[in-house]
Amino acid sequence: MKKIILTASLCLCAVLVHAQAKKTMRQLIAENLSLAEKQYTYLSRQVPANDMPRTYQDGKSINSNMVWWTSGFYPGTLLYIYEYTKSPAMLAEAERRMKNLEAEKTDTIDHDLGFKMFCSFGNAYRLTKKQHDKDVVMAASNSLSMRYRPSIKSIQSWNKSEKFNCPVIIDNMMNLEMLEWAAHNGGSARLGAIAVNHANTTLENHFRKNYSSYHVVDYDLSTGKVLKKKTAQGAADSSAWSRGQGWAMYGFTMMYRFTHDARYLKQARGVAQFIIHNPTLPADKVPYWDFDAPGIPNTLRDVSAAAVYASALLELGQYTTGAEKRSYIDVAKTILYSLSTDAYRAKLGENGGFLLKHSVGSIPHKTEVDVPLTYADYYFIEALLRYKKWYL
């Protein structure tokens, strides 16, 4: 019943988007950032001092410790809000939370240090230029490099388990940004070389002919050979998990920014075409949780995937021209207008303080299903700020 009601409510989104479209992008950005400041002020009061917000479900806030992979998105979002509003309170709250997060700079338990440390300390250094924040990013980059496996020329994502020998997931492309930034800002050139090697291996092994990506590629560490290609969060091993396609498009666009390697731009463009011309992508450009999900159209959307798409497409528009460039910007705009409607965006004081609704963490694991997620808010606000910077 919940899915049917949700699908019916989203059918109204075209009408709501049309109403929102009467606003200019400048007005839309201002409206969203003003609401974000108020929502995150409320959110900051709900979360214990030693935790990070994770989601809000069944009327309850669900928080995480610093080890959890999303722990950097909350301070990162606060910093984005501060970048626009110059609110001292937003900066102060971000810095308070980052004091607890800093210890993660030496964590080598998995590959998520880029998400945790660059979204937070990386943005902090960009905005305030405090040497300490840069030092944290450098330390985290060196820690992440310890998960590089020369035999497969990749960073191992998860540790060995009963299911996987040496798994590498498409999400890992996102963590390469921290390594590249470190290498370009005084860190070891080895960090950049690791990022390039990982991107090249991903390019070779993660993609199908139609530019869709597998979620997990498992390797034999002794030989470097691919053992299997699977999914952990998608509908099937052979399906195109929606957020995973966003990680791929964003990751290769970002790698082109640092390296100017034409192969990376070609890959990002190919993934973009797969997404925006996919017959299952709804008119409002907010995808179902998997492009091959059973039950389409009577299944859940993933707002977090849409937010990642918008941000990535806006950067991809910086490296393309003509009708192709326009198409990327137009799809991103459609997403931003869609996510600014009542169908997807919370009203003041609702949603536990989060900005966006209707994201999907992992349906196969039955976790974080149809709830707000910190990274949905983060990439939505990032996309709004990118539009303001590049296209206004």
Query: Strands of the largest sheet, in order across it?
Result: 5-6-7
Cα end-to-end separation: 42 Å
Structural class: mainly alpha
Give the percentage of residues in beta strands.
5-15%
The major sheet is characterized as: 3 strands, antiparallel
The average pLDDT score comes to: 95
Name the poorly predicted regions: 1-9
Q: Count the strands?
A: 9
| Total of DSSP H or I helical runs spanning 4+ residues | 14
CATH class: Mainly Alpha
Provide the helix percentage: 40-55%
In a few lines, what is going on in this structure?
Keywords: Hydrolase, Signal. This protein has helices at residues 2-10, 13-20, 25-44, 73-85, 88-101, 113-128, 131-145, 176-184, 189-205, 242-259, 262-276, 303-316, 322-339, 374-391, and strands at residues 52-57, 60-64, 148-149, 154-155, 167-169, 216-219, 226-230, 359-362, 367-371.
